[in-house]
Amino acid sequence: MRNIGIDIVENKRFNAFIDNPRKYSRILSAKEKDLFVQITNKSRKLEYLAGRFAAKEAVIKALAHTGYSFSYTAISVLNRSDGSPYVELENGTEFKILLSLSHSKDNSVAVAILVNGDE
Ligand SMILES: CC(C)(COP(=O)(O)OP(=O)(O)OC[C@H]1O[C@@H](n2cnc3c(N)ncnc32)[C@H](O)[C@@H]1OP(=O)(O)O)[C@@H](O)C(=O)NCCC(=O)NCCS
How far, CA to CA in Å, does 60 sit from each of 34, 36, 79, 111? Predict the structure, then answer.
């Protein structure tokens, strides 16, 4: 089964989250949090958090019907050395997911494609 998921969010929705560890800890995985706390630019923090949230929603949509469900914090959206995003799932599941992310000043959007849902 292959599948696709998409999500778009308003960045300002996360204004109250960026300086509140209790709130951003509900969204970010441990690896993402390590990176997030190193970001000093406020608008990049907002974009990072909004983008990760959109990406996780897109991944959850792509994984619907696989029989597996993941919390936000069990999904890590990380970046390769060229900046391109990739997904790591907790629990050792081997789903291969393609991800693309984009930000504007106001919005973040993500598309996720599950390519090996049969395995
Ligand atoms: C990658 C690129 C297209 C991003 O476009 P942009 O309009 O500036 O920014 P967007 O908001 O649309 O996209 C940003 C997201 O693209 C993704 N991205 C970054 N680099 C990427 C790449 N090489 N390939 C695919 N996606 C990439 C990231 O997920 C990023 O969001 P994040 O940092 O929050 O994870 C642009 O930076 C570019 O053309 N770079 C030159 C090509 C390149 O590979 N540069 C790497 C230098 S080593």
Answer: 22, 21, 19, 11
- Give backbone dihedrals phi and psi of 17, rounded to 5 degrees, phi first: -95, -30
Residue 119 lies in a domain: no
Segments forming the whole domain that contains residue 77: 3-114
In this predicted model, what pLDDT tens digit does every residue of 44-79 receive, in sequence order?
A: 999 999 999 999 999 999 999 898 889 999 999 999
Q: What predicted TM-score, i.e. pTM, was given to this entire model?
A: 0.93
Q: Is residue 47 part of a domain?
A: yes
In a domain, 21, yes or no: yes
- Residue ranges lining ligand 1, Cβ < 6 Å: 48, 51, 79, 82-85, 101-103
Q: Whose CA is nearest to atom 24 of ligand 1?
A: 84
Is residue 29 a part of any domain in this protein?
A: yes
